[in-house]
Design brief:
There is one protein chain. The protein is an alpha/beta fold. It has two domains: 1-156, Spo0b-associated Gtp-binding Protein, Chain: A (Distorted Sandwich), CATH 2.70.210; 162-330, Rossmann fold, CATH 3.40.50.300. The chain contains six helices and 14 strands. The protein has helices at residues 58-61, 172-179, 227-231, 251-265, 286-298, 315-330; strands at 6-12, 45-50, 64-66, 86-91, 94-97, 104-108, 114-118, 149-156, 162-165, 197-203, 206-212, 239-245, 273-279, 304-306. The strands form three sheets. It has a six-stranded mixed beta sheet, with helices on both faces. Residues 184-193, 220-227 and 333-349 have low confidence and may be disordered.
């Protein structure tokens, strides 16, 4: 299924039914009173977070959603039927924004969470409601209340335990395919990944979700490259796995490029628990590995791991540390565990 993380849709709740003007007309009853019924209430527009959905692709083919209107009241004090409410199912992690994309109307972060965004109009009163001691035969009734309508944006932010970040072609998709059953597109060129991919990592009876987003470049916080379109997907991740191409010459510079982009983007990304991995160890000898690890230690970053998706070097150690970090995060323990650390890098934006 194709991934889609943004969609614009039109919503319209149901109009309330009109009240009825009617009078009792029976044999031998000369002065039958008013018996017009009320109109039915219009249907609501309700969103529900569905754990079985992971993309907004369905909204590409249908953009207009309208709830059913209430029916009009009838004689003999019969109230019109209420309009059927419309339930729209979206993936967990979906934000609902107004047409300007500036205001978040609702954020569905838990499976089964519901929010009624638009309410249907109330039904109008029939003429039986207006009978009084001074007006025994009212001939007026209310119209049903109008419906509500609006354009909204749906924006999906993936909810994952581990968020993969790094420059293009750092090996993120390959790592995801090694640890999970996900089969993202893999190629030896930048921006092979054009949309986020999710995979489930298992360790014994434990599981966690890993998200791979397209590579970031300098200026990503401004939307350069694939930039802000996908940075939002790691806002909800518990831990960031920062993957660095070990075959490059200036690994530390590459690392700080991403750190600056996270800080400038905001949303707390720069403060998330991060784990650094030097990838493609199979293409380096021990001397090169030690030299590049020392470069990070010179910056005060001495807890990282050397890894190779091809040879499997460091695989088991990385897997264990990731589970440790996620469990540590979930239990709200902030001290270091298994090599993770809060970044306190020596740089200024």
């Amino acid at each position: 299924m194709k991934f889609l993380d943004q969609a614009k849709i039109f919503l319209k709740s149901g109009k309330g039914g009109n009240g009825c003007v009617a009078f009792r007309r029976e044999k031998y009853i000369e002065y039958g009173g008013p018996n017009g019924g009320d109109g039915g209430r219009g249907g609501n527009i309700t969103f529900v977070a569905d754990r079985n959905l992971n993309t907004l692709i369905d909204f590409r083919f249908k953009q207009h959603f309208k709830a059913e209107a209430g029916t009009d009241g009838k004689g003999r004090d019969r109230t019109g039927s209420n309009g059927t409410s419309l339930i729209i199912r979206v993936p967990v992690g979906t934000e609902i924004l107004d047409d300007s994309k500036e205001n978040v109307l609702s954020d569905l972060t838990s499976p089964g969470q519901e929010v009624t965004l638009l309410k249907g109009g109330n039904g109008g009163w029939g003429n039986a409601r207006f009978k009084s001691s001074t007006n025994q035969a009212p001939t007026n009734a209310n119209l049903g209340h109008p419906s509500e309508e609006m354009w909204v944006w749906l924006r999906l932010k993936l909810i994952a335990d581990i968020g993969l970040i790094g420059l293009p072609n750092a090996g993120k998709s390959t790592l995801l395919s090694v640890f999970t059953q996900a089969r993202p597109k893999i190629g030896n060129y930048p921006f092979t990944t054009l949309h986020p991919n999710l995979g489930v990592i298992s360790l014994g009876d434990k599981e966690m979700v890993m998200a791979d987003i397209p590579g970031l470049i300098k200026g990503a916080h401004k939307g350069i490259g694939l930039g802000t379109k996908f940075l939002g997907h790691i806002e909800r991740c518990s831990v960031l796995l920062h993957l660095i191409d070990g075959t490059k010459d200036n690994l530390v510079d590459d690392y700080f490029v991403i750190r600056r982009e996270l800080q400038k983007y905001g949303a707390g990304l720069e403060n998330k628990l991060e784990f650094i991995v030097i990838n493609k160890a199979d293409a380096m000898n021990d001397e090169e590995v030690n030299f590049k690890v020392q470069k990070f230690r010179d910056e005060g970053i001495d807890k990282l791991l050397v890894f190779s998706s091809i040879s499997g070097k460091g695989r088991d150690a990385l897997l264990k540390k990731l589970f440790d970090l996620v469990e540590n995060k979930k239990s709200k323990i902030t001290k270091e565990l298994g090599g993770g650390h809060q970044v306190e890098a020596k740089w200024k934006p």
